[in-house]
Design goal:
alpha/beta; 11 strands; 2 domains; binds NADPH dihydro-nicotinamide-adenine-dinucleotide phosphate; three-stranded parallel sheet; about 280 residues
């Protein structure tokens, strides 16, 4: 039987610790969340983030701007939040409307308030092994593996997907955790063979059924980041369900990586306010 890596369970343990740290410190972290336009999925994400913050004692303030907001106006808002001492963390909900250059907006966030870990300064720091703000999805994945005591050191970690928000930072984190790390992408030859050599397989492609049961050797841990819809419209990951059955442990979709991504944002928000949360499981 494969062990289910329950993201909701681990996330609620993290939330408990975040709540405690805030209550003990007497400091209330303040997070500014900026949403531009009316993408329905983004609206749901922002609402959920606000709910998480409220549950943990983080003061979150959401700025909702119209779809046709100019890049200049948006950058101006981010700069003013960056210079506002009462704001500890800033998050810009992605994707932004097409007329706005995301890099220009992200670079207006002060690195010490960059709770998504997307600024160049924080990306470069991570390459150097300085993990102040880790992007929320890979950060959440590593915390989930720690929570369930999945060994990482010396193991072969295969990451499928090389996006800036998941695959690349995940590879950096895996390397700094002393995993032997391989990154695959859409040009990779013999994907199945490489996956079959994985002790830890992390798939973040958004391609349902990409990971077949025959890609999985016994004792592999599967982390399925993908969020797709199956033919009945139900949420599913990148892995064929039989692939999970062959693994020693796996993250379900939904209920695996998603809640951990949200929990990581809370950890980053308290870090931005100068607080420390001890995750000694
Ligand atoms: P991107 O579209 O930015 O990246 C997808 C990656 O998958 C690319 O690197 C691409 O390769 C690779 N890829 C696509 N097809 C194949 C293939 N056939 N074989 C091997 N590699 C392939 O996606 P994101 O990283 O933003 O997100 C990935 C998935 O994770 C999505 O389903 C997204 O919804 C989900 N997600 C879930 C989160 C959560 O909290 N649960 C958070 C973030 C994302 P190439 O670079 O060559 O194009």
């Amino acid at each position: 039987m494969s062990l289910i890596l329950d993201g909701n369970h681990a996330a609620s343990a993290i939330k408990h610790k975040v709540r405690e740290a805030i209550a003990e410190s007497g400091t209330q972290p303040r997070l500014a969340v900026v949403l531009v336009g009316h993408d329905p999925a983004s609206k749901i994400y922002v609402r959920n983030k606000a709910k998480d913050c409220e549950q943990c004692g983080i003061d979150s303030v959401t700025y909702v701007l119209p779809e046709d907001t100019s890049e200049e106006k948006l950058v101006e808002l981010i700069r003013s939040l960056s210079n506002d001492d009462s704001v500890h963390g800033i998050l810009v909900q992605l994707p932004l409307p097409k007329h706005i250059n995301k890099d220009h907006v992200i670079s207006a966030i002060k690195p010490e308030k960059d709770v998504d870990g997307f600024t160049k300064a924080n990306t470069m720091a991570m390459l150097d092994g300085k993990f102040r703000f880790v992007p929320c999805t890979p950060g959440g994945i590593i915390e989930l593996m720690r929570f369930y005591k999945i060994p990482i050191v010396g193991r072969h970690c295969v990451i499928v997907g090389r996006s800036d928000i998941v695959g690349k930072p995940m590879a950096t984190i895996a390397l700094w955790n002393n995993a032997t790390t391989t990154i695959c992408h859409s040009h990779t030859r013999n994907l199945g063979g490489i996956c079959k050599s994985a002790d830890i397989l992390i798939s973040a492609t958004g391609r349902k059924n990409l990971i077949k049961p025959e890609f999985i050797k016994p004792n592999t841990t599967i982390i399925d980041v993908g969020m797709n819809r199956d033919k009945d419209g139900k949420l599913c990951g990148d892995c064929n369900p039989e692939a999970y059955e062959r693994s020693s442990a796996y993250t379900p979709v939904p209920g695996g990586v998603g809640p951990m991504t949200r929990a990581m944002l809370l950890l980053n928000a308290v870090t931005a306010a100068g607080l420390k949360v001890r995750l000694d499981w």
